[in-house]
Amino acid sequence: MKKILNVTAVVCLYAILLVSCEQPSIRQSAAPHTGNAADADLSQINGISERELSMLFSLTRTKITASDAAKKIADSAGQKKGQFTFTETEALAYDDEKGTFTVKVKGTKGLTGKEFEKELTLTGFENPYAKIFPSLSEAELDFSDAIEHNKTVDTFISDAAGNSALLKKLSFSDDNIGSLSLGVHDRYSLAAALEKNGDKIKIKPEYKVKYLKKEAGGSETSTETDRSALFARLGTDLTKPYFSKEDVFRYIIGKTDDSFLKVYPDAFASTYYAFTKHLNRTPGGAGSLLDDPAIQEIVDRYKKAGGHFKMDIGASVYKPRLGGIKADDYTGSLEIEYCIAEEEQIEAMLDGDYMPYPIVAIKEAKRTGFRTVTKENAGTLFNFKIQLTADAQAGNKWKQRPLNNYPFLRSEYDSNLKKHVYKVNNPFKTTAYCTFKVNGKEPEEVLAFNAPIFFSKCADGADIFIEQISLNKESGSDKLKMHIQFTGSGEGIDLEVSPEYVIGN
Questions:
Q1: What span, in angstroms and rounded, lies between the C-alpha atoms of 331 and 318?
Q2: Nearest-angstrom CA–CA distance, 448 and 454
Q3: Tally of helices (H runs) and strands (E runs) in the chain
Q4: Fewest CB atoms within 10 Å of the CB: 45, 146, 286, 400?
Q5: DSSP label of 311
Q6: Cβ count near 8 (within 10 Å)
Q7: Share of residues in the chain with pLDDT > 90 (%)
C-alpha cells in the first residue's frame, strides 16, 4: 500500500514539472513587448478600435465636443501616432448634442506596415461649454460719456441697450475650457444686458452655446442653446456701483494737462507763488492761475439739477503752504500740484479742516515762459542808491561802517500773528550821515511792502517775490555789497554800490 502511494506521488510530481517546462514556449509565441502597454495591446488587433483611437488622440469626453474630436482626427492625415501612421482621415458625421461622431481612418501600423482601413463611431462626448462652472475674471462698465454729461443711472442703462461698447470688459474663467470673453466665438457667444438694482447696475450675461452637427454626406449645421442660467450664482459679483463723485473728479482732471497751468510772459512766476502760498488761495479772475474754461462746460452740468449729481466743482492748488507750489525766477518756471474736488472739500483742505471724504483727484503741472531775473537785469530791476549828507565827516563815517551778512530783508516769526512774515531791517534808517534808497524810495516802500503777500516792486512796476537780501561792507571801503536771493534754485545775485556823491567833504 505504501509503494502504491509513492508511485502516485512520483507521477503527480512529474506532471507538475512537465507543465512548468511548457509555459515559456507559450509566452514566446506572443507579440514582442515594445515598452508601451497601449502599443502592445494595439498590435494584437487587426485594424484599430474606438478605445485605441481615443487614447491616440487624447480625447477626454468631458473636455471636447464631438465635432472638435472628429475634426482633430480628420486633421491628422500624414501623422504618426504610436504604431499607427494615418494616411487618410475623414470626419463622416458628428452631433454635439448627442455627443457622437463617426470617422473613417486609413493607414499602416507596426514595423511591418500592415495596412488598415476602418470606420469608427465614438459616443459619450459632452459639450464642455454647456457644463461650465464660471468664475468672474473682470467686469467693467464705461462711464466716460455718462460722467461727461452727468447722466442718471436710468439713462445709462437705456443707452447701453443700443451701445454694447458701454460694457467695456467682461470675462470669466472655467477649469475645463479656460477663459470666456465677450463676442461671438466658434463654440459660444457672450453678451450682456444691464438692469437697475437699487442705485447699482446688474450685469446679466447672455451666454449661448453652439452645437454643431453633420450627417453623413451632408454639410455642417449649427444651433444655439441658451445657457445664461450658468451665471446666476455670480449675481453679487456682477452687480456694480454707478459712478461716484470721486469718479467725476478723476475724469475731469484726466482731461487736463500742463496747459491747465497758465503762463504770463510779462510776470515773474514768484508773484503767483507768493500770492498762492501766503494767502493760501489760488488766484482767480483776470489773473487766474488755472485755466478753468478748459473744464467749465462739464463743471456747469453738475451745477444743474436733474443729473446724477448736483454739486459745485472747483480747481485749486493742492496744499499750497505744504509744497503745493514752487517757482523759479531764474528759469522763469512754475510748478504746482492741483486738484479737482467739490468747493467745500477745497475750502476744508485749504483751512486744514477735517475732510470726511479726502481729495483724490490730484495732478502735477509745470510750465516755463515767465519772466526771468539775471545778473545782467537785476541792477535795472532794483536800483540801490546811497547818498551822503552835508556832514563833514560823512565820508569817513561811511567808510568806517562795517556790515557782515546783515539781514536787510528776511523772514521772521511774528509771535503776535503766529506765523512768519518778511521784514526790511534798514541799518541806515537812523543814520545821520547817509540815506539809503531803493528805486528812489524808502526800502520799506519797495521791498516786501504789501503784507501778507510780501511782493517787492521792480523799477518797471512789475511785482516779484524776494526770499532775502543780505548786506556786506568792509571797514575802510566805499563799496556796499548786496546779495539778493530771488525765488528759485539759483545761488543768488550779487550787486554793489558806492556813494553816488558826497556833500560837504
A1: 23
A2: 4
A3: 13, 25
A4: 286
A5: -
A6: 10
A7: 82
What region does 500 belong to: left with phi over 0, alpha with psi -120 to 50, or beta? alpha
- DSSP-H helix ranges across 211-280: 245-254, 269-279
**For the range 500-504, what are the long-range contacts, defined as Cβ-Cβ under 8 Å and sequence gap of 24 or more?**
500/385, 500/386, 500/387, 501/387, 501/388, 502/388, 502/394, 502/395, 503/387, 503/388, 503/389, 503/390, 503/394, 504/388, 504/389, 504/390, 504/391, 504/392, 504/394
Q: Give the C-alpha separation, 393 to 504, whole Å.
A: 8
Q: Is the pLDDT of residue 7 over 50?
A: no
- Reported as a single tens digit per residue, the pLDDT across 272-301 is 999 999 999 999 988 899 987 879 999 999
CB 458 within 8 A of CB 379: no
Reported as type and span, the H/E element at residue 144 is helix 144-148
Q: Residues 6 or more apart from 116 whose CB is under 8 A from it?
A: 46, 47, 48, 84, 105, 106, 107, 108, 109
| Beta-strand pair 167-174/178-181 | antiparallel
Q: Give the helix ranges, DSSP H, for 37-106.
A: 37-42, 50-56, 66-74
On the question of a cis peptide bond just before residue 452, with omega within 30 degrees of 0, the verdict is yes
What is the DSSP-derived secondary structure letter of residue 158? Answer: H
State the pLDDT confidence band at 467, using cuts at 50, 70 and 90. very high
> Are 187 and 222 within 8 A, CB to CB?
no
- Which residues, 6+ apart, have CB-to-CB distance to 382 below 8 Å? 438, 439, 446, 456, 458, 459, 484, 495
Helix axes 293-301, 245-254, angle to 10 degrees: 160
Angle (CA) 19 21 27, round 5° = 95
Cα separation, 429 vs 170, in Å, equals 77
- The total number of residues shown for the chain amounts to 505
DSSP 56: H
Question: What are the residues facing 4 on neighbouring strands?
Answer: none
